[in-house]
Amino acid sequence: MDSLRRLLSGGPTSPEKVADWLNAWCPTDAVAVGCPPADDWADSPTDLAVVNARDRAHGIGEYLSHAAVARSIGGRLAV
Fold it and tell me: Which residues, including other chains, have CB under 8 Å from residue 36's CB and lie 6 or more apart?
């Protein structure tokens, strides 16, 4: 987690204007290194591990195709 801390300005916390943070991540997504961060973040984002196609592990379409991810985002857009 030390590498993640170095990437974050001011430490591992959500921005002030963020009421709910959903961290959707896939274990085979190389960009998701250091996930899940909830145990190390002061304000504990909600972590949601998903399984994306291996050849599209980082693809936004893969993440959004998961009902729980889409439901979380859609719920926030409707507010």
Answer: 23, 25, 47, 49
